UniProtKB/TrEMBL annotation:
Its EC number is 3.2.1.20. This is Alpha-glucosidase. It is an enzyme of class 3 (hydrolase). Coiled coil: none annotated. Keywords: Calcium, Glycosidase, Hydrolase. Residues 283-427 form the Glycosyl-hydrolase 97 catalytic domain.
Length: 633
């Protein structure tokens, strides 16, 4: 399919009379409208959908406290289709109306870009010359209805919420820091998400956060410009709009406003699955072998990966003992060169961990060194929330043809997978295999519906030997015994529900071999190579059901915190086609606390319009693999 690009524009110059001006810009389908006015020499916006106010009378500014005049405007209509290197869709339509406002802030010229999409709006400022003594700051108010409720990510903890705007107005302060992406549940089942995109392209800006301004009685966000550069371009500030909460996860506005792919030949960037050694250390297989940091352990991982078409094997910490610029002293526990050669022979690519705390060498020397070791990617631990450092790391890893996976409180660079598709995933969540202080079936659903809006997540789902983990038979925890509440089918489903360019499965090869019939769902899943994605059911704290298509095959994963049945209508299948379906299900005796490894696998045939009743126990899951009946699987 060729890209279709249609741009229609016209310029309207406004008089500089004292009367305030009001400008409207409407989305292509006519449902979303932004109204801008400069009453009292301050720029304010109002956001409507189908005539209903979602955000009203809210200030937006790049030079707060300075009077502003609108000198002129330009209107554009753009429609195009583009193709991501990898993602939830193979084709993405970019269709919007755009308003450019030419502004004067008491002698400083600025431009405000406003784009209206059918499913959201985007705002960006540009200042071509920042004068001395002026401190730009991207400031926005969000005057939401009192009945609106908010949810926020909480780092590696359970996401915060729900908070009501009315509660904020009656309190002196907010106890929690509110982070992007905020999820807002409004009246009439209208869902919003407040976040930013394309931060990777805008030096001088840090990640936004939110607070409730008691004086203004409004939610606000502010992002100061800290750079000596006189040219300023802000990230895009976004408000996503959906009728169903799950559709926020497939909203393409954050990708559409992000800068286009900067990697000239991205053919080396391959999404996929990876095995991981760290959480398997100390596990003893039935043949008496105990896993650790050694060649024999890694050969076992590599053999299993090769036999099951798993693209990667990730070696975590402790493979080195000392760090110098462009060089690391290898641990005497293993011979990395031999492991690398063995992996190459088997057709498995290696990913290698790096802990910044052990040596601040995340510079030009680090990434070429990893490339020289024959690695395909780096898992970067403890980088922290340093935006500029992270931005440079993404660029330098791309220059060395390395994938990069950020861990331990990373920067949520929304849209970065379009601009730098080597930024394959990030641990912007509470990872599955970390301590259980927050990770529960309910928390998983919260993170799937909140944290995942900002982009791909590395959550490490897919534990199959649940009993061994709960019994403490692993060196790397969790420390609290019997704290993993899940089922085998829920674990399989979670690997599909959480979108990522790199799905890291954390269990031992033997755990997957022993349950090869249900592992089939993960094995067959083509990670990151999706043609279409749909969120079929979603409710905060209760359940989520996700369907992804690759070619003519569909993969569907569902989980339910409380237990219950979700009716899944197969209306997305083709007419007059019969499909083979494999069900991976909780069994009658499955219990996420006392019998988590019970499951059943069965096959049948289905057609378009059939309804599948996906029954799950509390904390359980349900998976389906659907493909045309004439395929040989």
């Amino acid at each position: 399919m060729k890209n279709i690009l249609v741009v229609i524009s016209f310029i309207l110059t406004l008089s500089s009379c004292s009367k305030s001006k009001q400008l409207d810009i409407v989305s292509p389908n006519g449902e979303v409208k932004v109204v801008i006015n400069d009453q009292d020499s301050q720029l304010r916006y109002n956001l409507y959908k189908n005539g209903i106010g979602l955000v009203l009378n809210s200030e937006i500014s790049i030079l707060q406290n300075l009077n502003v005049k609108v000198l002129g405007v330009k209107m554009n209509q753009v429609q195009e289709t583009w193709h991501p290197v990898w993602g939830q869709f193979s084709d993405i339509e970019n269709h919007y109306a755009e308003l450019e406002l030419y502004l004067d802030y008491q002698g400083t010229s600025a431009t405000l870009l406003i784009r209206t999409y059918d499913k959201g709006v985007a705002f960006r400022f540009k200042v071509t010359e920042v004068s001395n003594g002026i401190s730009p700051s991207f400031f926005m108010e969000y005057d939401l209805a009192d009945s609106s409720t908010l949810y926020s990510p909480a780092g590696e903890g359970k996401p915060f919420g729900p908070f009501s705007i009315q509660d904020f107005k009656s309190q002196d302060s907010i106890k929690h820091n509110l982070k992007m992406p905020l999820v807002v549940e409004g009246d009439q089942n209208q869902f919003l998400s407040l976040l930013e995109s394309d931060l990777v392209s805008t030096p001088g800006f840090d990640v936004i956060d939110f607070k409730f301004d008691q004086q203004r009685k409004k939610l606000v966000s502010q992002n100061n410009f800290n750079s000596e550069d006189t040219n300023l371009v802000t990230p895009w500030r976004l408000i996503l709009i959906e009728d169903r909460i799950g559709d926020l996860l497939t909203n393409t506005v954050p990708l559409n406003v992000a800068a286009a792919n900067t990697i000239e030949n991205p053919s080396w960037i391959k999404p996929g699955k990876t095995l991981w050694d760290w959480r398997v250390h100390g596990f003893t297989a039935e043949d008496g072998f105990t896993y650790g940091i050694n060649n024999e352990s890694y050969y076992r991982f590599i053999d299993f990966a090769a036999e099951n078409d798993i693209e990667y094997f990730m070696i975590d910490d402790a493979w080195y003992t000392d760090v110098k610029p462009g060089y690391m002293e290898m641990s005497d526990k293993l011979d990395l060169d031999k492991v690398t050669a063995y992996a190459k022979e088997k057709g498995v690519s290696l990913l290698l961990y790096y802990d910044r705390r052990q040596g601040d060498y995340g510079d030009e020397a680090l990434f070429p060194y990893y490339n020289s070791l024959g690695m395909k990617g780096i898992k970067y631990g403890f980088m922290g929330s340093d935006v500029e450092f992270t931005r440079n790391a993404i660029k330098m890893s791309a220059a060395s043809n390395l994938l990069i996976d950020f861990h331990d409180g990373p920067v949520p660079f929304t849209g970065v997978s379009r601009t730098y598709p080597n930024a394959i995933t990030k641990e912007f969540c509470h990872a599955q295999q970390d301590s259980r202080r927050a990770f529960t079936p309910k928390t998983f659903i919260r993170m799937a519906l909140i944290n995942a809006i900002q982009g791909p997540l590395d959550m490490n789902n897919g534990v199959f030997d649940i009993s061994s983990v709960n019994a403490g038979e692993r060196e790397k925890g969790p420390r609290k015994l019997n704290s993993l509440v899940t089922t085998v089918t829920a674990e399989a489903a979670r690997t599909l529900i959480i979108f990522s360019g790199l799905v890291c499965i954390p269990d031992a090869p033997e755990a997957y071999s022993e349950k090869s019939d249900v592992f089939e769902f993960i094995k067959e899943m083509p990670v990151g190579k999706w043609d279409d994605t749909k969120i079929l059911h979603a409710k905060m704290d209760r359940y989520i059901s996700t369907a992804r298509r690759h070619g003519d095959a569909w993969y569907i994963g569902s989980v339910h915190a409380d237990g219950g049945t979700l009716d899944i209508t197969l209306d997305f299948l083709k007419d007059s086609e019969t499909y083979k379906i494999t069900y991976y299900e909780d069994a009658e005796d499955t219990n996420s606390k006392t019998n988590p490894e019970a499951y059943q696998v069965r096959t049948a045939t289905v057609k378009k319009g059939d309804v599948v009743s996906a029954k799950m126990v509390a904390g359980g899951g349900h998976c389906m693999w659907i493909r045309p009946n004439n395929q040989n699987q």
